[in-house]
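User: Predict structure, ligand magnesium ion.
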Amino acid sequence: MKRIACIGCTGNIGKQTAQIVREHPERFAFSALACEKNAALLEAMQNEFHPEVCYLESVGSEAERSRLFDGCDIALIAASGFAGLKYTLQAIRAGKTVALANKESLVCGGEIVTAEAKKHGVEIVPVDSEHSAIFQSLSFRRGTCFSELVLTASGGPFFGKSREELNRVTAADALKHPTWDMGAKVTIDSATLLNKGYEVIEAKWLYGADFSQIKAVVHPESIVHSLVYFKDGAALAQLAYPDMRLPIQLALTYPERLPCLKPLDLAAVGALHFYPLPEENFPCFSLALQAGRAGGILPAALNGAAEVAVKAFLLGRIGFPAIAQIIEGVLSDTVNGKADGFEALAEADGRARAAAEGKIHV
Ligand code: MG
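Assistant: Predicted complex:
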Protein backbone atom coordinates (compact mmCIF):
# COMPACT_ATOMS: atom_id res chain seq x y z
CA MET A 1 0.00 0.00 0.00
CA LYS A 2 1.44 3.33 -1.07
CA ARG A 3 0.30 6.35 0.93
CA ILE A 4 0.07 9.54 -1.09
CA ALA A 5 0.05 13.14 0.14
CA CYS A 6 -1.58 15.01 -2.72
CA ILE A 7 -1.08 18.77 -2.85
CA GLY A 8 -3.45 20.39 -5.32
CA CYS A 9 -5.94 17.54 -5.03
CA THR A 10 -8.87 19.45 -6.54
CA GLY A 11 -7.05 20.39 -9.77
CA ASN A 12 -6.88 18.40 -12.97
CA ILE A 13 -3.94 16.18 -11.91
CA GLY A 14 -5.39 15.75 -8.41
CA LYS A 15 -8.74 14.54 -9.79
CA GLN A 16 -7.03 12.06 -12.10
CA THR A 17 -4.93 10.82 -9.18
CA ALA A 18 -8.15 10.29 -7.21
CA GLN A 19 -9.44 8.20 -10.10
CA ILE A 20 -6.28 6.04 -9.98
CA VAL A 21 -6.63 5.58 -6.19
CA ARG A 22 -10.30 4.68 -6.68
CA GLU A 23 -9.39 2.04 -9.30
CA HIS A 24 -6.61 0.48 -7.22
CA PRO A 25 -7.73 0.67 -3.58
CA GLU A 26 -5.48 -2.30 -2.71
CA ARG A 27 -2.42 -0.36 -3.93
CA PHE A 28 -2.98 3.29 -2.99
CA ALA A 29 -4.46 5.48 -0.26
CA PHE A 30 -4.31 9.19 0.46
CA SER A 31 -2.55 10.12 3.70
CA ALA A 32 -3.13 13.83 3.06
CA LEU A 33 -5.21 15.95 0.73
CA ALA A 34 -4.58 19.65 0.25
CA CYS A 35 -5.83 22.38 -2.03
CA GLU A 36 -5.90 26.15 -2.18
CA LYS A 37 -9.56 27.09 -1.85
CA ASN A 38 -12.04 24.54 -3.29
CA ALA A 39 -13.55 23.65 0.12
CA ALA A 40 -16.58 21.78 -1.27
CA LEU A 41 -14.58 19.37 -3.42
CA LEU A 42 -11.97 18.91 -0.67
CA GLU A 43 -14.74 17.91 1.73
CA ALA A 44 -16.18 15.45 -0.78
CA MET A 45 -12.74 13.90 -1.27
CA GLN A 46 -12.21 13.77 2.50
CA ASN A 47 -15.46 11.83 2.90
CA GLU A 48 -14.51 9.41 0.15
CA PHE A 49 -10.83 8.79 0.96
CA HIS A 50 -10.53 9.49 4.72
CA PRO A 51 -7.00 10.95 4.75
CA GLU A 52 -5.33 11.66 8.11
CA VAL A 53 -4.73 15.27 7.10
CA CYS A 54 -6.97 17.57 5.11
CA TYR A 55 -5.67 21.06 4.46
CA LEU A 56 -7.33 24.08 2.84
CA GLU A 57 -4.56 26.58 2.21
CA SER A 58 -6.76 29.67 2.30
CA VAL A 59 -7.81 29.03 5.91
CA GLY A 60 -5.38 26.35 7.18
CA SER A 61 -2.94 26.94 10.02
CA GLU A 62 0.84 26.57 9.94
CA ALA A 63 0.56 23.67 12.38
CA GLU A 64 -1.77 21.80 10.01
CA ARG A 65 0.50 22.53 7.08
CA SER A 66 3.54 21.19 8.92
CA ARG A 67 1.87 17.75 9.23
CA LEU A 68 1.08 17.36 5.52
CA PHE A 69 3.83 14.85 4.71
CA ASP A 70 4.03 13.00 8.05
CA GLY A 71 2.21 9.84 7.01
CA CYS A 72 3.04 9.57 3.31
CA ASP A 73 5.33 7.36 1.25
CA ILE A 74 5.22 9.76 -1.70
CA ALA A 75 4.33 13.44 -2.06
CA LEU A 76 2.47 14.27 -5.26
CA ILE A 77 2.92 17.99 -5.82
CA ALA A 78 0.19 19.00 -8.24
CA ALA A 79 -0.47 22.57 -7.07
CA SER A 80 -0.43 25.14 -9.84
CA GLY A 81 2.18 27.89 -10.23
CA PHE A 82 4.85 29.31 -7.93
CA ALA A 83 2.63 28.36 -4.98
CA GLY A 84 3.74 24.74 -5.47
CA LEU A 85 7.41 25.38 -4.72
CA LYS A 86 7.10 25.70 -0.94
CA TYR A 87 5.36 22.31 -0.77
CA THR A 88 8.02 20.65 -2.94
CA LEU A 89 10.71 21.98 -0.59
CA GLN A 90 8.71 20.94 2.48
CA ALA A 91 8.29 17.38 1.14
CA ILE A 92 11.98 17.11 0.29
CA ARG A 93 12.99 18.35 3.75
CA ALA A 94 10.65 15.75 5.24
CA GLY A 95 12.68 13.16 3.31
CA LYS A 96 9.78 12.04 1.10
CA THR A 97 9.96 10.94 -2.52
CA VAL A 98 8.41 13.66 -4.67
CA ALA A 99 6.21 12.93 -7.68
CA LEU A 100 6.44 16.32 -9.32
CA ALA A 101 3.56 17.68 -11.39
CA ASN A 102 4.26 21.32 -10.50
CA LYS A 103 6.74 22.42 -13.14
CA GLU A 104 7.24 25.86 -11.54
CA SER A 105 9.10 24.12 -8.68
CA LEU A 106 11.93 23.34 -11.10
CA VAL A 107 11.47 26.34 -13.41
CA CYS A 108 11.70 28.88 -10.56
CA GLY A 109 13.54 26.86 -7.93
CA GLY A 110 15.54 24.27 -9.89
CA GLU A 111 18.81 25.16 -8.23
CA ILE A 112 17.45 25.02 -4.67
CA VAL A 113 15.18 22.03 -5.26
CA THR A 114 17.95 19.89 -6.79
CA ALA A 115 20.44 20.85 -4.08
CA GLU A 116 17.93 20.08 -1.29
CA ALA A 117 16.92 16.78 -2.92
CA LYS A 118 20.57 15.75 -3.05
CA LYS A 119 21.17 16.80 0.53
CA HIS A 120 18.17 14.84 1.83
CA GLY A 121 18.66 11.85 -0.50
CA VAL A 122 15.21 12.40 -1.99
CA GLU A 123 14.21 11.31 -5.46
CA ILE A 124 12.18 13.58 -7.72
CA VAL A 125 10.01 11.56 -10.09
CA PRO A 126 8.57 13.39 -13.10
CA VAL A 127 4.82 13.45 -13.71
CA ASP A 128 4.89 15.80 -16.70
CA SER A 129 4.25 13.53 -19.71
CA GLU A 130 7.36 14.60 -21.64
CA HIS A 131 9.70 14.07 -18.70
CA SER A 132 8.02 10.79 -17.84
CA ALA A 133 8.60 9.72 -21.46
CA ILE A 134 12.30 10.59 -21.12
CA PHE A 135 12.50 8.73 -17.79
CA GLN A 136 10.90 5.67 -19.44
CA SER A 137 13.19 5.93 -22.49
CA LEU A 138 16.18 5.96 -20.11
CA SER A 139 14.78 2.75 -18.53
CA PHE A 140 14.37 4.82 -15.32
CA ARG A 141 18.16 5.21 -15.12
CA ARG A 142 18.99 8.87 -14.80
CA GLY A 143 22.75 8.39 -15.09
CA THR A 144 22.41 6.87 -18.60
CA CYS A 145 24.58 8.73 -21.07
CA PHE A 146 22.49 10.45 -23.75
CA SER A 147 23.43 12.94 -26.42
CA GLU A 148 20.16 14.84 -26.72
CA LEU A 149 16.66 15.08 -25.27
CA VAL A 150 13.84 15.96 -27.67
CA LEU A 151 10.59 17.18 -26.15
CA THR A 152 7.50 16.87 -28.29
CA ALA A 153 4.93 19.68 -28.33
CA SER A 154 1.39 19.37 -29.61
CA GLY A 155 1.81 22.94 -30.88
CA GLY A 156 -1.35 23.90 -29.00
CA PRO A 157 -4.49 25.28 -30.62
CA PHE A 158 -2.64 28.03 -32.54
CA PHE A 159 0.07 26.07 -34.34
CA GLY A 160 0.17 27.21 -37.97
CA LYS A 161 -1.52 30.57 -37.28
CA SER A 162 0.11 33.75 -38.60
CA ARG A 163 1.07 36.68 -36.35
CA GLU A 164 -1.92 38.55 -37.79
CA GLU A 165 -4.32 35.79 -36.76
CA LEU A 166 -2.70 35.50 -33.33
CA ASN A 167 -3.59 39.15 -32.63
CA ARG A 168 -7.26 38.24 -32.66
CA VAL A 169 -7.43 34.93 -30.76
CA THR A 170 -9.40 34.81 -27.50
CA ALA A 171 -9.12 32.91 -24.23
CA ALA A 172 -11.99 30.65 -25.34
CA ASP A 173 -10.01 29.74 -28.50
CA ALA A 174 -6.90 29.06 -26.43
CA LEU A 175 -8.76 26.81 -24.00
CA LYS A 176 -9.74 24.42 -26.82
CA HIS A 177 -6.61 22.30 -26.61
CA PRO A 178 -6.53 19.76 -29.46
CA THR A 179 -5.15 16.73 -27.59
CA TRP A 180 -4.64 17.20 -23.83
CA ASP A 181 -7.18 17.85 -21.08
CA MET A 182 -5.47 20.22 -18.60
CA GLY A 183 -6.04 23.14 -16.23
CA ALA A 184 -6.58 26.67 -17.63
CA LYS A 185 -3.11 28.08 -16.83
CA VAL A 186 -1.15 25.25 -18.45
CA THR A 187 -3.55 25.20 -21.43
CA ILE A 188 -2.81 28.89 -22.12
CA ASP A 189 0.90 28.19 -21.55
CA SER A 190 0.62 25.47 -24.21
CA ALA A 191 -0.95 27.95 -26.62
CA THR A 192 1.90 30.47 -26.11
CA LEU A 193 4.52 27.64 -26.03
CA LEU A 194 5.72 29.07 -22.70
CA ASN A 195 4.91 25.61 -21.37
CA LYS A 196 7.45 24.03 -23.74
CA GLY A 197 10.08 26.55 -22.64
CA TYR A 198 9.30 25.58 -19.03
CA GLU A 199 9.70 21.92 -19.93
CA VAL A 200 13.16 22.57 -21.39
CA ILE A 201 14.18 24.08 -18.03
CA GLU A 202 12.56 21.15 -16.19
CA ALA A 203 14.51 18.69 -18.36
CA LYS A 204 17.75 20.50 -17.57
CA TRP A 205 17.25 20.03 -13.82
CA LEU A 206 15.75 16.53 -13.93
CA TYR A 207 18.34 14.99 -16.24
CA GLY A 208 21.39 17.22 -15.73
CA ALA A 209 21.33 18.15 -19.41
CA ASP A 210 22.90 21.25 -20.88
CA PHE A 211 20.49 23.63 -22.64
CA SER A 212 22.30 22.86 -25.92
CA GLN A 213 21.26 19.19 -25.51
CA ILE A 214 17.52 19.87 -25.20
CA LYS A 215 15.36 20.42 -28.30
CA ALA A 216 11.64 20.66 -28.95
CA VAL A 217 9.68 19.51 -31.98
CA VAL A 218 6.00 19.97 -32.82
CA HIS A 219 4.06 16.71 -33.00
CA PRO A 220 0.33 17.51 -33.34
CA GLU A 221 -0.96 13.97 -32.63
CA SER A 222 0.61 13.87 -29.11
CA ILE A 223 1.36 10.15 -29.39
CA VAL A 224 5.17 10.27 -29.13
CA HIS A 225 5.66 11.90 -25.74
CA SER A 226 9.39 12.67 -26.05
CA LEU A 227 12.62 11.07 -27.23
CA VAL A 228 16.15 10.42 -26.03
CA TYR A 229 18.98 10.40 -28.57
CA PHE A 230 22.21 8.49 -28.08
CA LYS A 231 25.63 9.08 -29.58
CA ASP A 232 25.35 6.18 -32.01
CA GLY A 233 22.37 7.87 -33.68
CA ALA A 234 19.71 5.73 -31.99
CA ALA A 235 16.64 7.43 -30.57
CA LEU A 236 14.27 5.89 -28.01
CA ALA A 237 10.79 7.24 -27.50
CA GLN A 238 7.71 6.48 -25.42
CA LEU A 239 4.37 6.28 -27.21
CA ALA A 240 0.85 6.17 -25.79
CA TYR A 241 -2.49 7.89 -26.19
CA PRO A 242 -2.38 11.38 -24.64
CA ASP A 243 -3.79 10.75 -21.17
CA MET A 244 -2.16 12.01 -17.97
CA ARG A 245 -3.31 8.98 -15.98
CA LEU A 246 -0.39 6.98 -17.37
CA PRO A 247 2.46 9.29 -16.25
CA ILE A 248 0.73 9.98 -12.91
CA GLN A 249 0.23 6.30 -12.15
CA LEU A 250 3.72 5.36 -13.30
CA ALA A 251 5.25 8.03 -11.05
CA LEU A 252 3.52 6.25 -8.15
CA THR A 253 4.49 2.68 -9.10
CA TYR A 254 7.65 2.71 -11.23
CA PRO A 255 9.50 0.56 -12.13
CA GLU A 256 6.35 -1.55 -11.83
CA ARG A 257 3.54 -0.90 -14.30
CA LEU A 258 -0.16 -1.44 -13.63
CA PRO A 259 -2.92 -1.57 -16.27
CA CYS A 260 -3.95 1.94 -17.26
CA LEU A 261 -4.69 2.91 -20.88
CA LYS A 262 -5.80 0.83 -23.85
CA PRO A 263 -2.84 -0.23 -25.99
CA LEU A 264 -1.91 2.09 -28.82
CA ASP A 265 -3.46 1.04 -32.13
CA LEU A 266 -0.84 2.28 -34.58
CA ALA A 267 -2.79 1.34 -37.71
CA ALA A 268 -5.79 3.30 -36.40
CA VAL A 269 -3.57 6.31 -35.59
CA GLY A 270 -2.23 6.06 -39.14
CA ALA A 271 0.29 8.88 -39.47
CA LEU A 272 2.50 10.76 -37.04
CA HIS A 273 3.77 14.21 -38.03
CA PHE A 274 6.69 16.32 -36.82
CA TYR A 275 7.48 19.98 -37.56
CA PRO A 276 10.04 22.53 -36.39
CA LEU A 277 8.87 24.67 -33.46
CA PRO A 278 7.69 28.04 -34.89
CA GLU A 279 9.64 30.14 -32.36
CA GLU A 280 9.24 33.36 -34.35
CA ASN A 281 5.46 33.47 -33.77
CA PHE A 282 5.61 32.27 -30.16
CA PRO A 283 8.17 34.47 -28.36
CA CYS A 284 7.31 33.03 -24.92
CA PHE A 285 9.33 29.92 -25.77
CA SER A 286 12.55 31.91 -26.34
CA LEU A 287 11.85 34.16 -23.33
CA ALA A 288 11.65 31.09 -21.09
CA LEU A 289 14.93 29.73 -22.48
CA GLN A 290 16.59 33.11 -22.09
CA ALA A 291 15.57 33.27 -18.41
CA GLY A 292 16.49 29.62 -17.89
CA ARG A 293 19.97 30.14 -19.33
CA ALA A 294 20.51 33.30 -17.25
CA GLY A 295 19.44 31.45 -14.08
CA GLY A 296 19.41 33.23 -10.71
CA ILE A 297 16.08 34.85 -9.94
CA LEU A 298 15.16 35.50 -13.60
CA PRO A 299 13.12 32.30 -14.08
CA ALA A 300 11.06 33.23 -10.99
CA ALA A 301 10.53 36.73 -12.43
CA LEU A 302 9.53 35.22 -15.78
CA ASN A 303 7.00 32.96 -14.08
CA GLY A 304 5.57 35.67 -11.81
CA ALA A 305 4.99 37.90 -14.83
CA ALA A 306 3.51 35.00 -16.80
CA GLU A 307 1.05 34.06 -14.06
CA VAL A 308 -0.28 37.64 -13.95
CA ALA A 309 -0.34 38.03 -17.74
CA VAL A 310 -2.13 34.72 -18.32
CA LYS A 311 -4.75 35.56 -15.70
CA ALA A 312 -5.32 38.94 -17.39
CA PHE A 313 -5.69 37.18 -20.77
CA LEU A 314 -8.19 34.69 -19.30
CA LEU A 315 -10.22 37.63 -17.96
CA GLY A 316 -10.16 39.32 -21.37
CA ARG A 317 -8.10 42.25 -20.05
CA ILE A 318 -5.29 41.81 -22.57
CA GLY A 319 -4.85 40.23 -26.01
CA PHE A 320 -2.80 37.13 -26.79
CA PRO A 321 0.38 38.91 -28.01
CA ALA A 322 0.42 41.03 -24.81
CA ILE A 323 1.25 37.93 -22.73
CA ALA A 324 4.73 37.77 -24.31
CA GLN A 325 5.10 41.56 -24.31
CA ILE A 326 4.41 41.79 -20.58
CA ILE A 327 6.81 38.95 -19.76
CA GLU A 328 9.51 40.49 -21.95
CA GLY A 329 9.01 43.92 -20.35
CA VAL A 330 9.24 42.52 -16.82
CA LEU A 331 12.34 40.47 -17.65
CA SER A 332 14.16 43.45 -19.13
CA ASP A 333 13.28 45.55 -16.04
CA THR A 334 14.53 42.85 -13.64
CA VAL A 335 18.05 43.03 -12.25
CA ASN A 336 19.18 39.44 -11.89
CA GLY A 337 20.44 38.19 -8.54
CA LYS A 338 21.35 34.97 -6.77
CA ALA A 339 18.64 32.39 -6.11
CA ASP A 340 20.15 31.58 -2.73
CA GLY A 341 16.98 30.62 -0.92
CA PHE A 342 13.20 30.44 -1.11
CA GLU A 343 12.91 34.02 0.19
CA ALA A 344 14.94 35.44 -2.72
CA LEU A 345 12.64 33.65 -5.17
CA ALA A 346 9.46 34.70 -3.39
CA GLU A 347 10.66 38.29 -3.45
CA ALA A 348 11.48 38.11 -7.19
CA ASP A 349 8.08 36.52 -7.79
CA GLY A 350 6.29 39.31 -5.88
CA ARG A 351 8.18 42.08 -7.66
CA ALA A 352 7.53 40.54 -11.08
CA ARG A 353 3.81 40.22 -10.32
CA ALA A 354 3.58 43.89 -9.34
CA ALA A 355 5.58 44.95 -12.40
CA ALA A 356 3.40 42.84 -14.72
CA GLU A 357 0.22 44.26 -13.16
CA GLY A 358 1.64 47.75 -13.86
CA LYS A 359 1.94 46.89 -17.54
CA ILE A 360 -1.70 45.92 -17.96
CA HIS A 361 -3.52 49.01 -19.11
CA VAL A 362 -7.19 48.05 -18.96
MG1 MG B 1 3.96 18.49 -20.52
